[in-house]
Amino acid sequence: MNIYDELIEIAAAVLKKPADTVLPDRSIEEQGGDSLDIVEILLQVEDRYGVYVPDSAVVEMRTLAELSAWLEENA
Prior knowledge:
- The protein has helices spanning 3-15, 35-49, 55-60, 64-74.
- It is mainly alpha-helical.
- The protein has a single domain (3-74), classed as ACP-like (Non-ribosomal Peptide Synthetase Peptidyl Carrier Protein, Chain A), CATH 1.10.1200.10.
- α1 (3-15) crosses α4.
């Protein structure tokens, strides 16, 4: 499983919805999540990949696709 697919799985678990309904090009808020869901997703990402996602990067990344691209470069 690649980073992109793993992010979909993480987001689906946090949002409590099937993975095939999580849209990587939409923000978490657009998919029914809130700021706490975003924090939970980021905590799981940091644990899984052993990388710290800085607040400045979080502000710039609005979608899972953007987070996936960032992780590809930084993890």
